[in-house]
Amino acid sequence: MKRTKNNMMRVLFALPFMATLFFSCKYDVVDLKPKPAASFTATPLAGVPNKYVLTSTSQNSFRYDWDKAGTGYVQGKEVDTVYFPYMGNYTVKLFVYGQSGVDSASKVITVAANDPAACVGTQLGFITSCTQKKWKLDPTATAYKVGPGPNDGSWWSSGAGDVTGRSCEFNDEYTFVFSAARTFNYDNKGDFFGDGYLGDNTGTCQPSSNYTAVQAPWGTGSFTYVFTANAGVNGLGQLKVIGLGAHIGLQKVRNGSEVITGPATEITYDVLAATHDVPGNYDVLTLGVAIGAPGWWTFRLRSF
Fold first, then answer.
1. N or C: which end of the chain has fewer CB within 10 A?
2. Where does the chain have alpha helices with state H?
3. Are strands 205-207 and 183-187 parallel, antiparallel or unpaired?
């Protein structure tokens, strides 16, 4: 009983102290601000084609994250710029953060024309004319050849007679479009040249319907391309065509080998030369592919 009495006395003495602590605590009450409201303007930058100033007009926000239509992300900036070299419609998004939540806004920017400064005077501009440009095999001797090095035809070269004898190769059209989609259109005009690696030793032009199911992607189609400046053996750039069956010149030529199974999904060509024929008023583009060590195929194209 004595022990119980002592315990009760301790509790009685502690109660006033606990009460003092409880009533001495202070709580700050802060009113939450309104939910953030995202908004912004996109204004063309004066004197600079295809560049826009993005300005946030958001309310009740302290952080601003921009999604610049696939051209990059910027965080923590209330004002930023965005550049679209190609014509088209681009959706810019702004995400804002405030004390009471998150909000977002988007705006479609319509770019009326390609920026000529992004293309003029460049190798890409030479290939695409900053709009689109059509190429064919140059209808002269040695338009395509193979040898131990680039632009070397010591193993084999097409002759003047092949322009007509292989007309179904010389009529093929390769069109490169200067656009955000980087479209590469190939038109084989409905025929191809029968050769041994295609399972046809007739050496004559054949309708595209004679392609096997595996070979069919070598026919007319729409693909994409990527141009890498200052690359390749001559430092003039590299042109990569992308998509099953995409190619320039002979179907069998690919990086590191010649085809034995079917179409490749991409092929990279080194730009060996890019010149303008003044008397003929057309451009000449020479491309090369290393098929082995050694071994190069070279294709000379002419603009039309």
1. N
2. 2-24, 123-128, 162-165, 167-170
3. unpaired
Give the torsion sign (CA, 107, 108, 114, 119).
positive
Distance CA 85, CA 72 (A): 14
C-alpha closest to that of 246 among 226, 228, 222, 274: 222
Query: DSSP secondary-structure letter at 172?
Result: -
Mean pLDDT, the chain cut into blocks of 10 residues (304 residues total): 47 46 51 88 93 95 92 84 92 95 96 88 94 97 98 97 97 96 97 90 92 96 97 97 98 93 95 97 98 95 98
Q: What is the pTM of this model?
A: 0.76
Sorted by sequence, the CB contacts under 8 Å of residue 173 that are 6+ apart come out as: 134, 135, 136, 185, 186, 187, 189, 304
Residue 47 tokens, joined: 């004197």
40-111, what's its fold? Immunoglobulin-like (2.60.40)
Q: Token match 């195929």: residue?
A: 297
Length of the chain counted residue by residue: 304
